[in-house]
Structures are given as structure tokens and as C-alpha cells.
Specification:
100 residues; alpha/beta; three-stranded parallel β-sheet; 4 helices; globular
Length: 100
């Protein structure tokens, strides 16, 4: 989805395993998106991972207050994101061996 409004429209048709959302999006920010996700019975328990450049504790705390499950600051470690996705989807994550 290109922004929060587009994400909500897509959630009408399909509920994904996990939502990755930025705080800063046009038309509807990530905080409002999470509030809307939590307000809908169909998506209330949908895991939401916030990925953002806003690293202040106040943003992290607010994301938790509105219902985000996890908060990653940019830049984030790809391994951490992949492990989170595996955990939220019930899949097993196996890191790829380093290639030369």
C-alpha cells in the first residue's frame, strides 16, 4: 500500500499475516493506521510492525499505546525484521549462509 488510506482499503479485501507500517505516510500516518486496524474486529489482532526514522522514546511509547506490536528504527537490521516476521507468522527463519 502506498499510504495508510490505501492500506485500509486493501484490508477490506485481504488480511495479511503481518502489517509493516511507517509512521510518516501521506493521507494517514502510521499511528492512525494502527488505531484503525485495532478498531476493526477483523484486524484487531493483526500484528503490526512499525518501521520508522523517528527514534525518540515518545514515538516508540505512542506506537505501543495505539497498539503496534513492535517498533524498528531506520536503519534496521534485516535479520531482526526477518526473525520478527517469522515469529509473527509461525514460520521458521533460517539465516542464509554468507556468500563470497
Amino acid at each position: 500500500a502506498k499510504d495508510g488510506v490505501d492500506a485500509l482499503e486493501k484490508l477490506i479485501e485481504t488480511v495479511p499475516d503481518v502489517v509493516l507500517a511507517d509512521i510518516e505516510m501521506p493521507r494517514m500516518d502510521g499511528f492512525d493506521l494502527v488505531r484503525n486496524i485495532r478498531a476493526d474486529e477483523r484486524t484487531r489482532t493483526l500484528p503490526v510492525i512499525m518501521i520508522t526514522s523517528r527514534l525518540a522514546d515518545k514515538h516508540r511509547r505512542y506506537a505501543a499505546e495505539v497498539g503496534a506490536n513492535h517498533y524498528l528504527g531506520k536503519p534496521y537490521a534485516e535479520e531482526e525484521l526477518l526473525q520478527l516476521l517469522a515469529g509473527y507468522t509461525g514460520r521458521t527463519y533460517t539465516p542464509q549462509a554468507a556468500t563470497s
